[in-house]
């Protein structure tokens, strides 16, 4: 994610920036830095670690200037380190850039710039921007930036200052947020409103592909072709806490809505519309190595374990390799049959969960190859793994995991397709078909997010329930487990998920008049079977809330309430099916007045056994 702030005016910019960065720490916190125009030159201070590390240095130094940009980082390319922190500069150090996003074609640009004699100091994609602006600079910073954005691909919001034109900040945005704050003889930029709310409530929200040139008393916007753009002032009437949550009532709801973007980011650079391969440069697994593995274990806890259950289905189905999924706290104590012929896939949002980390070490000691799917770059699990595939969900603040789960599933599709490609179990054409549908998932999830009415209706009617059961078959069963966990952890309503075919072996005894059953009915192949199971619980008096694919009118005749998700193939349905379940848990918890973002007895990162 990362957070950006900038200031130009008569005040000392440093405290303004530090204040703003503190408000943006929720966007990333593994390193931070500032570029301040002071004593006739751009001066950079940047350090790995929380913002307090930067703050201590700046307090000692008394650095001061009226023009500055700052950054709080959430690593994507290159682990957290001083060198990889922003701002990044050209070689002379007189052009400084802060960036939020991903420059997809940075390797190509880097090669080009190296061929022109440019020398790089970091592993970060952003550094190409500083050198590229230098390359195009001919006396007009905005013009150089304009030329650069014609050549770069990806998603970005970035800001540039230079001591060659120390009266301005130039910034652009594409698919990542950036706002401009309007002051009196001073102006601001920021990734998000909370960063500048203390100074002004008058803002401009930058549009897609817009470029802004900001001086202390003027703000101008341009389209990507250089035509001036007129903008309306947006007056912010939120309080600070609402602003941090982007106007949402809770971080959980904000993060649920961030999923289309998080999923898109997790696919960026790895799969493109015009290609039939999946590029996973971070996984150095050859076809021969893959052939050597007789078995794969997926090991994780909680929600990450539920993503693993989907992963098992995908890898077995697409790459034809047997997979076992284990709960980390069990795996580490059951002396699993692991050796050099085993691949262990570790899944963890935080990369710090103690049980998962211990399981990793156990497997590594036995000679297994470790591939981890992690959200936090440079975390303990990432550092101990042979290969890491990062999910690019950005920081997850709410204790209940939402965007981490869906991005983990996306990463597992990528792994399964990559393995299928290496093993030749799918043709290029089949891979392309699945990949093209995956690229449409963000739009489908967006659509599913628009469908809240039925869920709110359900929540207001059923929030007083003591028990809620989730049932499904195949991939729907894996998603049912996650829906049930979400509900119990934030609403404190007892809930269990069952494979629908198992009901008759015991759980159906729990069904009585009015028992609430959430039935997932998205799997075409298993639909008829599922229909029978729904009829079984209905016959015993259950109130059935069905989730089915658009166009399936039959479900309405059986269920008490039906919610439709957009059409999606069975295999790709979990990231869409889970959306109403996340919303259902959320609205049930809100109805009950629970502390949604910080449920009782739970912690975001579980570093105890
Ligand atoms: C549930 C939840 C937890 C985590 C689990 C693993 O909403 O968030 O079940 O999934 O504690 O955490 P990570 O993924 O950080 O290893």
Task: Note the main attributes of this structure.
binds fructose -6-phosphate; 7-stranded antiparallel beta sheet; 609 residues; single chain; globular; alpha/beta; 8-stranded antiparallel beta sheet
Structure description:
There is one protein chain. Helix 4 packs across helix 5. The protein has an eight-stranded antiparallel beta sheet with strand order 3-2-4-1-10-9-11-15, with helices on one face. The radius of gyration is 25 Å and the shape is globular. It starts with a strand and ends in an 18-residue tail after the last helix. The model has no long low-confidence stretch (mean pLDDT 94). Strand 19 (369-374), helix 13 (380-384) and strand 20 (387-390) form a beta-alpha-beta unit. The protein has 609 residues and is an alpha/beta fold. Fructose -6-phosphate binds next to helix 10 and helix 18. Fructose -6-phosphate (F6R) is lined by residues 301-304, 348-350, 353, 356, 400-401, 485, 489, 605-606.
